[in-house]
Design a protein that fits this description.
This protein is α/β, with parallel strands linked by helices. The protein has 3 domains: 196 residues, Class I glutamine amidotransferase (GATase) domain (Rossmann fold); 189 residues, Rossmann fold, CATH 3.40.50; 97 residues, 2-Layer Sandwich (GMP Synthetase, Chain A, domain 3). 32% of the residues lie in helices and 24% in strands. α1 links the parallel β1 and β2. α6 crosses α12.
C-alpha cells in the first residue's frame, strides 16, 4: 500500500485500455486513488486498503463466460459507494442478481454499441447526475464501447438514464450507494464525464485533500525515514522527472544527495550548460558533470542501425554512471524518477503483479548491477502531477514545461550514421525551430517538437550557385501521455517562415519538410 494518510479510492481494473484515465480524472479532483488488477484484490487486500469508495473499470471480457473476471463478493459488503463502468456495470448486475445478455461478439444475439451515443434521463434525478441533462434537448453525449448489455436489473436498482441501444445506461441502488453506467465517463468523448466523477466522490464524502503541498511534506518525511543518514545518487538528465525527484530528495537529505549528469554528446544546443547551471546556481547540490561525449560518439562512429545505436548508448550510460557513482563513498541508494504509469504497466492484467523495475525506466538496469536500494519519490504521480510538484518546489517554469527529450538524445533524430558535423547541423536547425515555436507562442500547446536530419542530400540553388546539402524534417505533436499523438496543425505561413530561417541560418541544410504522421501508425521519434 502506498499512502495511508489520505482517504483512498480503489479502482479495480478489469483490463480496460482507459483505466488510467479514471485515475487521472480523480486526481484532478484532489482525490487519492490507486489502480489494482482484479486478481490482486482479495478479502485481505480490501481490509488493508480500507477504501472510502470503489470503482469497477471496463474490460474486454464477457460476464456471460464462466471464467469472466470478478471482484471479491465482499466488496459489496464494505458499506462504501461503488461505481461500475461498462464491464463494471455488467459484473455488478450479474453478481447482485441481475442478468447480462451477450452480444454477437460473445456469441449472443444482443446489439453491440461502439462510439458516440446520447443518453436521455428518466423522470427521477439523483445526486450522481447533478449538472447533467437539462440542455436544449435534455440529453447528454456519451461514449459507448460494449458488446454485451444489461438485460435485467439487480434487485434494488432503478434506471436513471437510457440510450437507444442501452436501456439501462445509468442505473443505481441509492439505498446502498451503488451506481453503474454502461458508457465511459473518463474519456473526452463524454463531455460531462468529469462532472459525474465529481458528483461520485462528493457523495462518497471525499474532502479533496490530495494536494502537492501535502504530498511534498509526506514524501520528505518518507525519504528521511527510508534513507536516514545514508547517501543517495541520482542520474540527472535535466528532464522534468529526474529534476523534480532530485530537488525533492535534496530538500529531504541535503548534501547526502549526489547527482550525476552524463553528457553523451547527443544533447541539444547549450543543453548541458543550462542543466548544470540551473542546478549548481539555484540549488547548491552536489553535481558531477560527466562529459563523456568522446566515448559515446567514438563507439557510435559508423553505426546506422537504430537498435544498435540504442544498445550502445544504453550500455555506455550504465558503464559511465557506474564509474562516477563509485566515486561517491558510502552510497547505498539510487534515486529514480519512476512515475505511476510505470508502476501500473509493470503489473500484468493476466498474471497479476510482476516486476517493479522495468527496462524502460530512466536508468533501467542500474539497480541490479549496482546492488543499491531504490528511492522513488514520484511513483504515486502522473506526469501532470510531477509538473505540479515541480511548481510547488519552485523549479523554473522553463524546466517544468520542457518538452520530453529521449534518453538516446539526438542519436534517434539522426537516422543513418552519426557524425559530429551532422550533429552540429541538427543542433542549429533544432534551435531555430524551437525559437520559432516560442516566438509564435505555441510551445505550451505542443507535447513535443524537434528537428530530424535526414540521411539524404538534395540539390538546391542558393544565390547563383548549386548546393548539395542535407534535408531536415520538422516534427511537432499534440498528446496527453505520448501513447497516441496527432501532428500539430501549423499554418502554412509559420512553416514557410521557419523553413526560410533554417535554410538561411543553418549551413548544410537546403530543404525543409514537415512530418504530418500521427501515432499510430508512426512513432513520435524517427528511430
Amino acid at each position: 500500500m502506498s499512502d495511508t494518510s489520505h482517504d483512498r479510492l480503489l479502482i479495480i481494473d478489469f483490463g480496460s485500455q482507459v483505466t488510467q484515465l479514471i485515475a487521472r480524472r480523480l486526481r484532478e479532483l484532489n482525490v487519492y486513488c490507486e489502480i489494482h488488477p482484479f486478481q490482486s484484490v482479495t478479502d485481505a487486500f480490501l481490509t488493508e486498503f480500507a477504501p472510502k469508495a470503489v470503482i469497477f473499470s471496463g474490460g474486454p471480457a464477457s460476464v456471460v463466460n464462466a471464467d469472466a473476471p470478478r471482484p471479491p463478493a465482499r466488496v459489496f459488503d464494505l458499506g462504501v459507494p461503488i461505481l461500475g463502468i461498462c464491464y463494471g456495470q455488467q459484473v455488478m448486475m450479474d453478481m447482485l442478481g441481475g442478468r447480462v445478455e451477450g452480444g454477437k461478439i460473445s456469441g449472443g444475439g444482443g446489439t453491440a454499441e461502439f462510439g458516440r451515443a446520447y443518453v436521455e434521463p428518466t423522470v427521477d434525478h439523483i445526486a450522481l447526475l447533478d449538472g447533467w441533462f437539462g440542455g436544449d434537448d435534455d440529453r447528454e453525449q456519451v461514449w459507448m464501447s460494449h458488446g454485451d448489455h444489461v438485460a435485467a436489473l439487480a434487485p434494488g436498482f432503478e434506471v436513471y438514464g437510457t440510450s437507444p441501444n442501452a436501456p439501462f445506461a445509468i442505473t443505481a441502488n441509492t439505498v446502498r450507494n451503488f451506481y453503474a453506467v454502461q458508457f465511459h465517463p473518463e474519456v473526452h468523448h463524454t463531455p460531462k464525464g468529469a462532472k459525474l466523477y465529481e458528483n461520485f466522490v462528493k457523495l462518497a464524502g471525499f474532502s479533496g485533500d490530495w494536494t502537492m503541498g501535502a504530498y511534498r511534506e509526506k514524501m520528505i518525511a518518507a525519504i528521511r525515514a527510508q534513507v536516514g543518514d545514508k547517501k543517495v545518487i541520482c542520474a540527472l538528465s535535466g528532464g522534468v522527472d529526474s529534476s523534480v525527484a532530485a530537488i525533492l530528495i535534496h530538500e529531504a537529505i541535503g548534501e547526502n544527495l549526489t547527482c550525476v549528469f552524463v553528457d553523451h554528446g547527443l544533447l541539444r544546443k547549450n543543453e548541458a550548460a543550462e542543466v548544470v547551471g540551473m542546478f549548481r546556481d539555484n540549488y547548491n547540490l552536489k553535481l558531477i558533470h560527466a562529459d563523456e561525449s568522446d566515448l559515446f560518439l567514438g563507439e557510435l562512429d559508423g553505426q546506422s542501425d537504430p537498435e544498435t545505436k540504442r544498445k550502445i548508448i544504453g550500455r555506455l550510460f550504465i558503464d559511465v554512471f557506474q564509474k562516477y557513482a563509485d566515486q561517491v563513498e558510502g552510497a547505498e541508494f539510487l534515486a529514480q524518477g519512476t512515475l505511476y504509469p510505470d508502476v501500473i504497466e509493470s503489473v500484468s492484467f493476466s498474471g497479476g503483479p510482476s516486476v517493479t523495475i522495468k527496462s524502460h525506466h530512466n536508468v533501467g538496469g542500474l539497480p541490479e548491477k549496482m546492488g543499491l536500494k531504490l528511492v522513488e519519490p514520484l511513483r504515486e504521480l502522473f506526469k501532470d502531477e510531477v509538473r505540479a510538484l515541480g511548481r510547488e518546489l519552485g523549479l523554473p517554469a522553463s524546466f517544468i514545461g520542457r518538452h520530453p527529450f529521449p534518453g538516446p538524445g539526438l542519436a534517434i533524430r539522426c537516422p543513418g550514421e552519426i557524425t559530429r558535423p551532422k550533429l552540429e547541423i541538427l543542433r542549429e536547425a533544432d534551435a531555430v525551430y524551437i525559437d520559432q515555436i516560442r516566438k509564435h507562442g505555441l510551445y505550451d500547446e505542443i507535447w513535443q517538437a524537434f528537428c530530424a536530419i535526414l540521411p539524404v542530400r538534395t540539390v538546391g540553388v542558393m544565390g547563383d550557385g548549386r548546393t548539395y546539402d542535407y534535408a531536415c524534417a520538422l516534427r511537432a505533436v499534440t498528446s496527453v501521455d505520448g501513447m497516441t499523438a496527432d501532428y500539430y496543425p501549423f499554418t502554412h505561413e509559420f512553416l514557410a517562415e521557419t523553413a526560410t530561417r533554417i535554410i538561411n541560418e543553418v549551413p548544410g541544410i537546403n530543404r525543409v519538410t514537415y512530418d504530418i504522421t500521427s501515432k499510430p501508425p508512426g512513432t513520435i521519434e524517427w528511430e
